[in-house]
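Chapter review: from sequence to fold.
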Amino acid sequence: MKILFFIDPVIYQNDGMFFAPHVNFVRCLINANLSDDVHYALATSPWLLDEYQTLVSAHGGQADIELLPLNPVSILSGVGFETTANSVDMFSPQPGNAAYRALITELRSRFEPDVVICSTENPYIAEVFADRVVLYHDMSHIRRTDGTYNLYLDPCGHDGRNILNACKAEILDQAGDDAVFSRLALEHQTALFGGVEAMQARLAFRDWRRQAGLEGERIALVALQPVGPLLSVEGAWEGRSTAAFLTHSLAALPPGWKAVVSHHPADETLHRLAPYVAQCFEQSRQPPPEIFSKGSDPLVPEFDAIISISSKVGLLGVLCGKPVISLGLSGHHRYCGRRVEDLDQTEPLAPAAIGRLVRFMSNRYYFTFEELFTRPGFVFDLIRSIGAYPDPRRWQLDFSDWTPERLARLY
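The token string follows.
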């Protein structure tokens, strides 16, 4: 078996090491799945290949995998050397970067894999390796109760093209008693938000809401994301910036709504800008920074709606039964409204639908770090199981061996 790991070589957020955490993912996954019958390769930028070798030297791992350097400048030459234009192309229904397509085609000629594991949205990987098993991976969309993440493996895409969107109808049409699925949704919400720290954060928010005279008011959380260039932000929203998102969301908010803006912990630019922008909009209200000391996640049940480009907070809102607006092609956009102006007409998922979505995520979509990195051969078993199905999506939509114990993966 030949397995190719692909990490986008393009530089995002002006940081060549932005995708370095994915390099360590590759190292850890290979370490847990060593076999004489498997040949691994990693294709990415030269500096991330150097990072792989540095990590192996410092922490151990398989040093003799095939390292395939990719030149990001050759990719950007096909889009006028504009990183944002490349991001938009990645999300386009008709991607047209001939240089990127040629690079991936040439990559296939250098290493003919059976399986490709990719860490970002990439239509050229999907196109060139259409006759191979392709799995997209990243950290889970929601945190576990201890603050850590799971990892997901998706056969359709990383963001807008993922299986949550592509197979929404089948996920929500699972056979079964609505009352049972509604209880499953309630159990999920209780597990996520029933902890002491989460409750303390919400009580602090309620105190602020009362003191600000906002009891009875409808409040939308406007969830900011880092300033780009960033593939899953500008790319997901037709090249528009997070600064434009902030102003647009406040300006388009329907009458009768107030807005609270949350800041992404990885970004200071909008953190400085937001208070000035908020003063331009009467409907904006901003609690003191300590209200968000535990982040936005534990506060989601306190809001009446969530607005974002592609933030994972949006999916958390969906799972809490909130109306959610996703302006970008996020990993959950088909469960959301697409325009802030339509917030009043945006319907949340019903409890039974939430329960079906939770069951899907706990079945064969999310996996724990322990499963992937400490169980020898676990990934081989997954790949063999997926290969037994003509369409990899059918494997993830097969609930024949699902049990409620799998819900523990989410918590």
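Two observations follow directly from the output. The longest strand covers residues 133-143. The mean pLDDT is 93.
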